[in-house]
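Exercise 4. Each item below gives a protein and its sequence. For each, produce the structure-token representation.

Item: Malic enzyme (Imperata cylindrica).
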Amino acid sequence: PVVYTPTVGEACQKYGSIYRRPQGLYISLKDKGKILEVLKNWPERSIQVIVVTDGECILGLGDLGCQGMGIPVGKLSLYTALGGVRPSACLPITIDVGTNNETLLNDEFYIGLRQKRATGEEYHKLLEEFMTAVKQNYGEKVLTQFEDFANHNAFDLLEKYRDSHLVFNDDIQGTASVVLAGLLAALKVVGGTLADHTYLFLGAGEAGTGIAELIALEMSKQTGSPIEECRPKIWLMDSKGLIVASRKDSLQAFKKPWAHEHEPVATLLEAVESLKPTMLIGTSGKGGTFTKDVVEAMGALNEKPVIFALSNPTSHSECTAEQAYTWTQGRAVFASGSPFHSVELDGKVLVPGQS
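Answer:
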């Protein structure tokens, strides 16, 4: 919690006014045509890991532009502290293509370009030059981690570079691996296999669809069934309600595999009552969306409801550990994205997981 969530979220929001010295490398639209030169200005030559963001989707806080640098810096602290990668081999990078955050554009301490975000061809050309320069300067083996890009760019970038560069998207793939580990651990408490359970997600962005896909992949591996047969166990909701087959034509490509046959459902409570999920997973970025009604409905349906409120930072968590435990009389198997303190209930100490 000191080097990462929730502290890092506040640090990013205030980055301009607490700025003392550069902690990473900034590449902006103004560097177009000379990104390789900019990379060569970094004093360390043998880089193993790059964490790069464009600041458009920082945690659940949205577009923080250049101030998103706190995220690559914080993530790379974890590479060192937990992964043992030497600090000099880590390179935090923020690509500054502007920001659509009016508050920052009008903030005298904002450190980035004061313009609306570049999009389309201008954006993708810059990213292409960046990815080419990374490989030229650091070789084939440098790992580039995409972090906190907005949905529309995140899926495109991963698809475009996964075959030519050593890349992964933390929000689509990194989050998914940790959450799947959490669900496998939860099975030890609630019983059954992955395929025995029904999953309902609130939130169908990078995290939601990424986790859902990895659950389906693991289910497919365990059962020997094709992944297409495993996906119908997993349901997703977005801001327009349950993702169902009748909405298929209007859905973004990454949501289409999750459009199953079902009548439209508008609210989370209705979805819980209709689908009877055993596992409820929040990736909505909106705090308080697992209301008392929803959690109590999960508790009524399940002896041990699995409730993962994963949105960051803590203020955006779908519910708190205390709420999940209190509303289910201590029966919930709970994990969150940011840490919560343990909860004492009826003389028992309940320790929430972090996933």
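Check: Residues 170-190 form the longest helix (21 residues).
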